[in-house]
Predict the structure.
Amino acid sequence: QVQLVESGGGLVQAGGSLRLSCVASGIFVSIRAMGWYRQAAGKERESVATVTRDGVTDYADSVKGRFTISRDNAKNTVYLQMTGLKPEDTAVYYCNAQPFVLGRGDLEVWGRGIPVTVSS
């Protein structure tokens, strides 16, 4: 089984910065991709940024130039450095991972989600 634990959320003023962290734990061979998703009130969950094990990244257009995703494979950790935060970034942010687990194959795992609130 694989679990994801997120940290780093909170309340910040517009224009400020936050760094989210997500640590994967459990028994797995590798993690194909990790990423951050968010869900704002009244909206569907959307992809914010993803990164493969080899470091290939994808970003939502709304966060390009402001957010940076990275991962430390040795620590099974993915980070999201958020700068220039805007009120529209307010949402619950979810960590996502795709681990390969012996006997189960490729799985998709979600963190519990952490709130990020940006005040104007």
Notes: The chain has a mean pLDDT of 96. The radius of gyration is 14 Å. The chain is about 0% helix and 60% strand.
